[in-house]
Amino acid sequence: MGLNDSWNRLSSWHGTNCCQWSGIACDNTTGAVLAVDLPNLRSSAISGAIPPNLGNLSSLQFLDVSSFSSNVDNLEWVSGLVSLKYLNMYSVDLSKYIDLSLNNLTGSLPDSIGQLKNLVELRLNNNLLQGSIPSSIGNLQRLTTLTLASNKLNGTLPDSIGLLSELSSLDVSLNKLTGVISEAHFHSLGKLENISLSENSFILNVSSNWVPPFQVIALEMGSCHLGMSFPSWLKSQKQVHVLDFSGAGISGSIPNWFWDMTSSLAILNVSFNSLEGHIPNPFNIISYATVDLSFNQFKGPIPLPNVILLDLSNNQFSGSIPENIGQVMSVLSFLSLSGNKLTGAIPASIGEISLDVLDLSKNNLAGSIPSNIGNCSSLTVLDLQKTICPCSNDSNNGGDNYPDGGGKADQTDNGNGFIDKWFYMSIGVGFAAGLLLPYLVFAMKRSWGGVYFAFVDGTAYRLSSEKMKAAARRRNRGVR
């Protein structure tokens, strides 16, 4: 439904030059709309839906639509007003939907927010909000979505959250929240499907025989303290697609029943714990999943699930890298086996995988580096430091014995397979192809560009963040 102007107040709104319209102010140089001033719309008999294409006014600094006489079901367009300095929506009915994410909002959540009892969705993520979450939020009995992620909120999570019986999505991740999460917080949340509590300092305290009232699809509790052993209540969840228990203080082995529920997982992250034991090989998980088991104490041979990302770094895996890794893990893009106790040679089939990242550093591998790694045209990160031991039978080949497991990268192979100029040339050609091919493809198909660069950005962020996390945990343990 468009605007209804029964009193003809917007009679000047015709023609293509909107800068001449009543209530519109523009930049004299660029012609960009800077202000939309339409106060007291109710008294002017203007009604209908606020046009969402207002969100296209990226230079808009002033917007006054106070006393608008229709309720607002969608505020997604507000996030497009990146230059906005003043917004007046006084007396506008926002009783169902509030999305003010990504707006640099400051201040705290008022206790009066609990008076919006018809509110269905509340999205205030990616702002600069501080203070605590008011307990009055439990009055929003129709609320289905609560997203407060990526703010600076502190204090505890009120247990009145557990009264929101219609809630399907709860995201308070990336804040400074603390305190105990108990069964009361989930008491009436039978419709809850998405839980994200990650990157806070919560302590989960539930009974050993607790059965959650919900069936979640996404369960993100990274950095929450979940207890010393693997949470037994997870056994009741039958449709989990995303599971993040990273940095959760869990020790011991992963129970056998867990591996029976991994077939539905698309994301599995149990990194930065003290988990131990063997990993089933193979274990069932969907193709194109991401698996992060890094920074634990897992032992035995490395598992080979057919996934897109596999991080087994900083464990105690031993044995050799299986010869058939290239055939078994055909969709793999990211592989990190760094910081384990792997021996033997790098299998040639690893060059058959379209890898973006390959990290085999800090192992005890021996022999030559397969020249067909140069065929990995998409390879952007290759880390072999302190991993290749030059174990030639010829004691007079001029090589050095490197106690840290590293060898000279420029040493000639004399037929024994050490890195040579052909390897470097193939890597160079592959690197050039990796740069040029995406450019040519995206020139023809722009919509693919966002997906590709999001993946590259995610990979870079992942590498840097994991290094920072590892450094932080070493500092906490007194290790330098």
TrEMBL record:
Xref: InterPro entries: Leu-rich_rpt, LRR_dom_sf, LRR_N_plant-typ, LRR_R13L4/SHOC2-like, RLP23-like
Keywords assigned by UniProt, alphabetized: Cell membrane, Glycoprotein, Leucine-rich repeat, Membrane, Receptor, Repeat, Signal, Transmembrane, Transmembrane helix
Start and end residues of each Disease resistance R13L4/SHOC-2-like LRR domain: 47-237
Gene Ontology terms: cellular component: plasma membrane
All copies of domain Leucine-rich repeat-containing N-terminal plant-type, residue ranges: 3-27
Pfam families: LRR_1, LRR_14, LRRNT_2
Membrane topology qualifier: Single-pass type I membrane protein
Similarity comment text for this entry: Belongs to the RLP family.
Protein name: Uncharacterized protein
Species per Swiss-Prot/TrEMBL record: Hevea brasiliensis (Para rubber tree)
